[in-house]
Amino acid sequence: MNPGSTNIRQVPVNFQASNNEATQRRAGKHLVLVGARAGITIPAQPQLTARMNLPIVPNAQQAAILAGRDQHNLIYGNAGSAKTTTLALKVMAELKRGTLPSAIQVLTYSRAAAKAFQERLSWMGTSKEAIRQVRVHTFNELCQEQLAELEGKTQYLDKPNREVHSTVLLAIAQARRHAEARGHLDDFTIPGDGSLLVPSLLRTFRRLKGSLAVQVLGNEFVLTPRSADEAEAGYTELAVLRAYERLRAGESSESTSEGDFEREEYRDSIGPQFRLEDDPFYDMACVLTADDPIYTAGDHPLKLGIALLLVDEGHDMNRAMFTVVQQLTEHNPISQVFVVGDIDQVVHSDGGADKTFMQETFVRTFGHTSEYLLETCWRFGDSLAGPLGLHAHKPYSTDPDRDTRIEILEVADVKLVAALIDGAFQSSLEESGGKMPSLAVVLRHPGSAVQLENALALRGYSTEPYGFEPFALRPEILFLRVLVAWATNNIGTLAQANLSLIQRSMAEFTGCMNDNRFKKVSYTNLGVFHTNFLGEVERFVAQADKGDSAPIVNFSDGDAGEIVRRFLAQMRDLEPRELARLVLDSGFVSMAKRAFVFDEQVDEAMASMLDFARSAAEFETFSAWLDQMANRDADAQRGRAKGGQILRLYSITAAKGLEFDHVVIPDVSAGSFDGDQQEERNLFYVATSRARKKLTMTFTGRPSSFLSSFGRPEDWSALG
Fold first, then answer.
1. How many angstroms separate the CA atoms of 604 and 348, rounded?
2. Rounded Cα gap, residues 336 and 333, in angstroms
3. How far apart are CA 445 and CA 453, in angstroms?
4. Are 323 and 285 within 8 A, CB to CB?
């Protein structure tokens, strides 16, 4: 918020605050109220309810929003403060005033949020026909729908497939040739074909496209390593993105000038070859901002006859989304725009999300703006609201009937965390009468949760991850697993593993992708994989042992071949408890750098591999360890879990917008979930605010500074 801005009118609401019940302190420009319900009483508004015939009684803050008539409005709501309910009340109030359902547009970030909004309207008694006519879309859905009117139907993909993977690889090759032709090859940082980099590049594209990074640079931008640095973007990423977008648009020519970076293909082609998630609103933003648009003023793609525009989770907006909101406002007879969100929940910076689109950028764009607050939390009680108010430096009041239990535990190791989760699951299962427990394990670093997943597996649990890849499918885990199975004559334990992923992982780590045989062959069964791929590597090892200088397999990095040979030799007399030490001393880090390139990915891959190796110490033999992995492969294929139930693990971003009776957050430790960066603080805020009845947090060693809002360490408990 910008309280000093002349364009902002903060709508006053009368609070009855008791200094005996609340402690007040200043934090910057915000007044933070801490204590029981923060000492705030918000009166209900029965008169408004009776006048509008609303199904529930709004409080004073909600009433101010419903009664407001200014055109441009921002609503700042705390987590659990009924933001969606308030927007649904606004829709009902407008319907009572006579606004046509089809003239109301609601935009959300996710399909789950859009569905929740419609369910809220239904719960309030809105007719099925009115719900059907009210325009409730995600940003992607609205833009995809309207782009189809311009281009015809375009293939929409929920997730990358082989076509996308191949397109990225081709883009890497084209960008490399482009860099070489212009003398920038030394600045192009992707060696090899970059197969394992495809997911990370797609994530980078998502951020660059969401923030319209290229479009902001203007038509005169010429891509060079220096200009990329000045634009605070990577030369390699921008070069590959340019090639990728041309290929996605159906262009095959590379004979474009260095400065020709804009997506001019909209003038010459009808839509792209495919769209991934987030591409629709990016493509729409490109259409809307093109110098030579493919539409006329009379058939603007967002001219929809909208009178009321409501944007839920506005804190997730990036520049492409904001461009859509701006154009909707300009080209429709909109009487009011309401954007609701919580700037302490901005956790999608990887997609270009920026809180300024709910702050100064909004005001600068639209002018006079009214601000509203929603401070009362209906999800959890005082025991959680008070600490979160301190953490986020803002007022937080609660429903007095809510009670949330907070549990902070020091644990000695990950086995105790697994035991804790096991107990929580069984307790929740009993309370729910055998139904799926409302329990979520929320992880700050899901890529480093290998030990926890293994510890849970030893307790008989199958886990279902949301927002991240199961550790058993990660390339570094597959690489190590194959080597250990091979060295100990346990190749049969890979029978139900994903051989396609194994092939790519082994080839990228060893450098064998330089051999065309391994690029073209897809291994359909374990026997073929063992005979062909591992057979070739095995012959290389045998020849290296004999001093043969002409191995069959052409390792592009001679060190990689030596590392594999040495590792296999040392595995012969190794005990499972010694595997972690061997991995640490193996030189795998140089192979990881080949596969991942970027330092943070290399560090995470090595940590993951080391944690996986440590899990072997729980078994007497490598055969037993690998058999357990094989059983997990079989469980994953059958979808089997303990007692027929599934234990769900969430990344924080995947849990955002959801709520659970019990939330467990492991490893809230210094150095793991800590720091001064705002997004890190926001992630903690989002994770903790998912809980309704109980929140359990654990730490090992020194606790995170974030836990200081929850009282003194001597009041916490210890396990182990």
1. 20
2. 9
3. 12
4. yes
